[in-house]
Structures are given as C-alpha cells and as structure tokens.
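Can't attach files on this board, so I'm pasting raw text. These are the components:
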Amino acid sequence: MTTLLDGRIALKHGAGGRAMRTLIQDVLLAGLGSGDWIGADQMDDGAAIRVGDAWLVITTDSHVVQPAFFPGGDIGRLAVCGTVNDLAMMGATEPLGLTCAVVLEEGFARESLQRVHESMRLACLESGTTIVTGDTKVMGRGEVDGIVINTTGVALTHTLVRDAGLHAGDRIIVTGTIGDHGLAVMATRHQLGIEGTLRSDVAPLNALVRTAMAAAPGAITAMKDPTRGGLASALHEMADKGRVGVVLEENALPVSDAVRGAAELLGIDSLHVANEGKAVIGVRADAADAVLRAIRAHPLGREAAIVGTCLAERPGLLVLDTGFGRRLIAEPEGEPLPRIC
Amino acid sequence: MTITDASLRRLQFRDPVRAAGLVHALQRVTTEIGRAPVAVMHVCGSHEQAIARFGLRAVFPRGLDVIMGPGCPVCITDLPEVDEAVALARQGIRIATYGDMLKVRGSALSLADAQAEGARIEVVYSIAQAVELARNTDEPIVFFATGFETTAVATAAVILGGPPPNFSVLSAHKYIPPVMEIVSEMPETRIEGFLAAGHAATITGWAIYEDFVARHRKPVVVAGFEPLDILAGLVRLVELIRDGMPQVVNMYPRCVTREGNLTAQEQLWRVFRPIGGRWRGIAHVPNGNLRLRDDWAGVDARRRFTIDITALWDAAPPALVQQCICGEIMSGIASPQDCRLFGKECVPDSAVGACMVSSEGTCRIWHQYGGHPDLARLA
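---
Top answer:
Structure tokens for the assembled complex are below.
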C-alpha cells in the first residue's frame, strides 16, 4: 500500500534487512554492470578483483554509532574491526592497509577524537594492519551527529570465500555468543538501567578466520559477519543466496546470561541483534569438528558452537528448533525496539 | 539494576523434557476424544506470542485446532475509535499513545498519517509517561487509551491519582469476558473450550468465568504464559472436553486467585462503566467497551473536546481493506493463510489489516514466526 512516506528514505532502509537490500538493488546498483569480478551486484561483504593468480579484496564501511563510546568499545575500534572483518569474511585475512575518512561535528571534543584515534591504532595492531591514508572534514553544528568514520580496506587472497556458497548438508558454526554488541549499545543509548555486564563484542576476526581456514583447507563453504540484523539477517541472506534451508538449534546457540536476561526483559530476540566480533561459518559436515576445534583454540572463539544444518528442502527459509517445537525465523524488518508494554 | 542470571538458568516453566511429556499427553487425550478436529480458543495476544515464539504449533496434535480469538487490543479497536483520535490530532491536540496504535488505520487515516501531515503524536510506553508529558506543558494532552482490563486498571489508577488539569483520556478500553459469549454464540463457531488469559484473571479472579461456563456448557482453563503453562492448560482443557465437564479450572495458581485483585477491581469499576460497542471485525459486544463514568467527565476527552469524525469519512477506504479478513480470523472462523493479502500486499511494513500491525496480532505473529505446522517433519 502506498503511504505518504513512500518517496523518502526511512530508518529501516539502513537496518540491514529486506528494505535495505531492495533499496540498494533498486537505486544504488542501477546501471553499474557486472563482469569477471565479484562486484557490488553480488552484495557480498566486499568486492574481489582478479590480480594475477590472486584476488584483490576491497571493502568499505561508514560507521555511525550513538553513543560513540559504549561498554566494550567505541566508534574507532568499530571502524577498524568492521572493515577488517568484512575482508576476512571473504577469505582475505591479511589486510594490506586501511584508509580512514573522518567527518566531525563542530564542537566535538578534541580529547574524544584522541580516544577514538588511540582505539583505532590499537585495533590495527591487533589485526596486523595500519591506516595508510585518510581524509578529515568538519561540518557545522547539527549538520552531522558528532563523528562519522569511513574506512576502506584492501587485502589479497588465494582462497576466496563467498557468502553464497552454502550446500545442503553443511554445518553452521557461530564463533561465539550472539547479541552482545547490539544490546550493549541499545541499553546505553536508551539508558535502560540494565547495562550491568553487557559489553560489545567488537573485535578483529582475521586471525581467527585464518586459523579456521587452515584447519581444513577448502572445507569452509561460506562466511558472513552477523552485524546489523543479527544472526537472523546474515543467515537469511546466506540461505537465500545458497538456495538451502537452515535448521538452527536454539539450545546450541551461545548466548551470554546478560544478553539472555536483557533480551527477555526487553522482548527482543537476540537472533535479530547486531554483533561486531562474530562470524557465521558454513563448513562441510566432515570437517565441521576440526574447524570448530581450531576456532575454539583461538581466544575469540572459545564459545564457538555448531548451531545448525543446511537442507535441500525449503530453500531460503530459516527454521528454529526451540527444544519445544519448531518455528520459522523471519527476516528482520527495521531496527528492533525495546518492547516495554 | 544488573541482571544476574542464576534465576534465568532455573526457568522451571521452560523445561523441554516436561514439555515433551505434556505434548504426549495432549496427543493422547485429543485422540481419546475420538473425533477431529477439536477446536479450542485462547483470547490473548501473549498466549499466541508464546505459542509462536516456542514453536508449539509444530507439536500440537493434528486433531486439535488452537485458535487465537479476539485477544489483541490493537486489532479490535474499532475504526470510529481510531477516527476520534485522528480527528483530535488533526484539530491540533497533542495525542499520546502506545506505538502499536500509530499504524492502525481508521476509516481513512491512521495516527501515523496524521503525524505525517503535521499532527503531534507522542509514542509512550505507559500512561505514566503521558502524564509526565502533561506535567511539562500547559497545552492539553490526550492519552488514547487502548487495551483490556489489565491495561484499563493502570488508566484507572492514574485517573484516581489526580492527573494534571491539562491531561485527559480518550478511552477505547475493552473488557474481555463479554466477547467470549459472543464467540460462543456465533452460529458458525466450532469452539469447544477456552484458554483464559492468566494476567487478566490476576485482576478479575477466575470465578468471573463461572457464569459463562454455566450458560454455555463450555470449559474455561486459566493459563499462564510460559511454554509449560500453555501446554498444561491445553491438556487440562481437552481433558475437560473429553470428560464432558464444563467447569472453570485455574492452572495459574501461582498468580491467580478465585476473587482476583479486589483493590484493582474496585478502582477499575469506580472509574469505568461497561457499555456496548463494536469490536473491529467481530460484532457489537454488549458491555464490551469501557467508558469513563460521569464522575470523571473532567478527564474524559470525549466531553472536554468536540470531536468531529464525519469529515474523515469523505475519503473512501482503500480498496485492499475490503479484502481483509481480520474479523473472521479473530472470530476463529478463518486463519491468516485463508487471506489472499497475507504475506503479499499485507506485511508488517505496510499492513492492510489491524492484525498485521500489532506485535500481538495473529497475522503479525504468523508472519514473524511462521504458521507452518509441518516443520516438525523436516530432517
């Protein structure tokens, strides 16, 4: 049905779900064309261009988060990890370098900028890369909300991993607890008074992914980082592109007590909540245990688990086995909001 | 507040092993009835949400239809009631209401449409927030009050507490017990028993259903909202149907008593009087609407303002609305899958019917959690 708002961009168009995908397909990809590369039309975590016998992987991401400082991290750490992780999700685990463009609002505290910069420096150290060039703009008060950071990353790989590669029979691994980032930010932003032990999981995953890929060469069929829209959104996209159904075991999903409690209280499904330090990995069944062991041996993967299986039936659908019964998991539409009444 | 989760690990009403036992019992008793399908109705959005969230529909016996009745307060708010709020908003009055009410269309417009035109609508999580808004301004604030007796009690408490003079209430509150009579009397009804909402019964007490049972010879079981509450309630309900024993059984004794919360009831009826009125898509329900008593004319938006809703009726309703079968769905005669709009033209982002708007609406819940009972058979 048409409404008065149809000609305008709404918040849902940035929330990582179907509305965002449709907007990108209808408007932003129009006339870009395709070719012998993995381009924007594939809507993967990044692009890949053939260079000799390797792939050059490129990805870019603009980071806005309110508040800029939250339990477990800040916008600077997020900006580095987000881009490093997008590269890693395509199998490119050794970033050659990052660019960094910063847009600041007039009045933004210099000391805050220094904190953001220090976070970026440390996150680069952790992921074995550095910022090689950048750009800085300042806008008038009210023209931008505090700080916006864009980072672009490049890396070479010989083993390109796509988010479209799931096959029936593959197992799904999640590299740790879900929902931590989104709930920590939401609790801080809305001042819900339940911050307590909620902490963002924002972290660079490239070393963990490298370990996982080395544990069983060629066995990883698909990867994606479940950021906006959470695990539900990432798996929907993977199931859709791979033309498989996915059955998830709710009791196998790693969820911290703090997230479980906060999600229950707010009426939010942690499957729909953003993560910034987790990967969803599709693995051939015969290699699943070996890959899981390798991931668990990494400090960021201690709570990794096999959480689901891919089926030839019901392509594109996610089914949750709750331990009581089964249901479909819907693709999120718009941001989850605390349901208080 | 910090959430420490020792308590969450011990969620005794979420024990899958006990649930499997109850599912088995439900299957056995349903089979013992010896005819299919047996149809029961619950009248609560929270029941439907728990059923969907835990995937219980996939394990209900094939011979048992568990139908969601008119249990979503947003869905049964009638068109003219929404029109009143829209009309007030377009007259320039600031309206405070629950987020779910924003997208529900009246005869022509929703409050969200009015907002897009420039009307001032404030989304609140509770009536207390609306009162707070009123305290911080001199201009009139009208709280568009929706919900069943559970929510009406909160409205009553605020009115008795003496809200600021610029605060008033546009009541669209509804009272559940009378609509169970209506559904039972519908000629096409297949309903043989009711699962009553535990939180409403916390206020009203379970004895309120005794007259209903005596008149209609259909059992009523009061149940809570955890998976084991619902399964145990259903087992008891089909047992009563099997044994031909129409009676009220309280399966939520940890919260519900025979008399209920007498203080809350006293406050509810001191502020509200029941009158007959339409429930959207269902019928005229005698004593189904709660309106402010004359003593509270001062906080009654209907008496403080002249509300002209006829101007809204010039705009012809959108054609799709004519195809919407929300009424049949809420009466338990049809399911969302019988609707040709469901999941196509009618999705949460652009809902045609009220059942797709509210997080408690049947269509919204089916859309979000999938009404696919054959999921159990997947590998």
